[in-house]
Design brief:
3-stranded antiparallel β-sheet; about 90 residues; mainly beta; two-stranded antiparallel sheet; Zinc-ribbon domain-containing protein; elongated; about 0% helix; binds zinc ion; 7 strands; 2 domains
């Protein structure tokens, strides 16, 4: 955890705060988004799951994109792969 300044009142607050404890403004550090994209046809049969700070944010399919709103600061992004099941007839 790091301390940042509230964009509204300037108070020092945690970078993980979703609202300023002094003035109440939402997203006191401002807002950002991680945009993750996957090129087409690269490992298209492999399913990928996006996790940010340990929380799942969906699957990233070929030519797909996942947008994750985050607070400013450092975040841990992990893309886990899992082979798709082989379809049998
Ligand atoms: Zn504030």
């Amino acid at each position: 955890m790091a301390l940042i300044n509230c964009r509204e009142c300037g108070s020092q607050i945690s970078d993980s705060a979703t609202a300023c404890p002094r003035c109440g403004v939402a997203a006191p550090g401002g807002s950002c988004a991680l945009v993750l994209t996957r090129p087409s046809l690269v490992g298209g049969a492999v399913r990928t799951e996006v996790h940010v700070d340990g929380r799942p944010y969906g699957n990233l399919s070929a030519r797909g994109r996942v947008v994750v709103p985050v607070t400013p600061g450092s975040h841990h992004v992990e893309v886990r792969t899992r082979e798709s099941p082989v379809l049998r007839q």
